[in-house]
Design a protein that fits this description.
seven-stranded mixed beta sheet; globular
Length: 162
């Protein structure tokens, strides 16, 4: 069973164990593959974000954040980022994180969720987000510098929550 809870500062080492291999691959996130732990913890645990972890049998296996996508007049739309530990992929954890985050976003008062940059070649994520109710509302040509494939398109995906 998966338990999802707000992240605590002492979760940072476990969260880094998830983030590091994901960004090092250079194929799904905009973060530089050589980003330091300090940089990534500052980003992931930014005070303007709601950061969460998912535990399975006492082990942190996934993490996500929620944050207003834009300030002021756009702050009713939430943005999110999800990562699952490589050893736990394929177990439905990302879907559980997404579905939990949709409810949490509603609870926090957000009216919509938008993913700004879903890499088009990350077909597993694109299909999963569509399964969770998101629609591709636009494609940004050559917006991502894929480590192996070069310039790659990215999708903007959106879901109205209200």
């Amino acid at each position: 069973m998966l338990t999802i809870r707000p992240a605590e500062i002492n979760d940072q080492d476990a969260v880094w164990e998830i983030i590091e291999p994901v960004i090092r691959a250079g194929d799904t996130y905009m973060y530089a593959p050589d980003s330091s732990k300090e940089k990534m913890m500052d980003i992931w645990f930014d005070p303007e974000k709601y950061t969460y972890v998912a535990e399975k049998k006492g082990q942190i296996v996934g993490t996500f954040f929620l944050k207003a996508n834009q300030p002021d007049l756009g702050n009713h739309v939430v943005n999110a980022g999800y990562m699952v530990h490589p050893a736990y992929r394929g177990q439905g954890i990302a879907e559980q994180l997404c579905r939990f985050s949709l409810g949490e976003a509603r609870r926090l008062g957000f009216k919509a969720m938008q993913f700004n940059c879903v890499i088009s070649t990350n077909t597993v994520a694109v299909r999963l987000w569509q399964k969770c109710g998101f629609t591709i509302i636009g494609t940004l040509p050559k917006a991502f510098q894929h480590r192996e494939l070069g310039l790659t398109d990215a999708h903007v995906m959106y879901q109205w929550l209200d």
